[in-house]
């Protein structure tokens, strides 16, 4: 592993803050669009447009809530803590990929390394929790061996 947990953790937090800011900005634009839409003689068209904007605002609001919850989960993790078994906040190097056990964010690039940020509740996360270096799990016919933990 070329990158460390602290670096991964920091990049994730920055990414979530940007997502929250973008969703809030998009929500404001949708609200402005909804509110500035003037009622025309075609009342149904006006109501449909307003409803579509309201739905978009609701989706953006939910995205903000989810991202803020994920940010709180990340803040609760100590990226400097190391354990002998996979737990929340573990950086796991396997014979296939490297995983950061935190939140479900998927693939991210740090320097030249690909890291998969997974949730403990995901199918892979559930199988990895509590495992140690040298342990092997099977997922979709693949034998995944834990080579290193930090």
TrEMBL record:
GO molecular function annotations of the record: translation elongation factor activity
InterPro entries attached to this UniProt entry: GreA/GreB_C_sf, Tscrpt_elong_fac_GreA/B_C, Tscrpt_elong_fac_GreA/B_fam
Superkingdom: Bacteria
Coiled coil, from the record: 50-77
Keywords (A to Z) from UniProt: Coiled coil, Elongation factor, Protein biosynthesis
Keyword Protein biosynthesis in record: yes
Annotated Transcription elongation factor GreA/GreB C-terminal domain residues: 98-142
Region (Disordered): 28-49
Listed name of the protein: GreA/GreB family elongation factor
Organism: Aquirufa echingensis
